[in-house]
Amino acid sequence: MAYAQGAIVVGADPFGGSQQRPYLVLSNTTHPFHGTEYLAALVTTTERAQAVPLAGAYAEGQLPYESYVNPGNILTLKETAIEKRVAQATVDVVASTIDELTAYVAPESTL
Known about the structure:
Elements (H helix, E strand, L loop, with lengths): L6 E6 L7 E6 L11 E8 L7 E2 L4 E4 L6 E11 L3 E8 L1 H15 L6
Antiparallel strand pairs: 1-2, 1-7, 2-3, 3-6, 4-6, 5-7
Pfam family, one: PemK_toxin
GO molecular function: DNA binding
Protein name: PemK family protein
């Protein structure tokens, strides 16, 4: 099953802290491995200055606790690591997360 950009999915925790954790799918259908791999951001319950809040920002479904997207923690999430889709974030959440991420990876003027 291919997941759309903005899908909030639950899958294996790459850090081993818990059995599963939520992620926000950031990649779109132009990703070369769409359907088998996704660029995703970790979703956490820890509020940070740069985190994007999910409260009131669900287009469909929701997480059972107050959550934030961490744009500084991006990974490749394989389809086989995803257990299920639990919600869909709004376009604004996806855009805000990508905007914040872009600031982290934009070329620095000193290069």
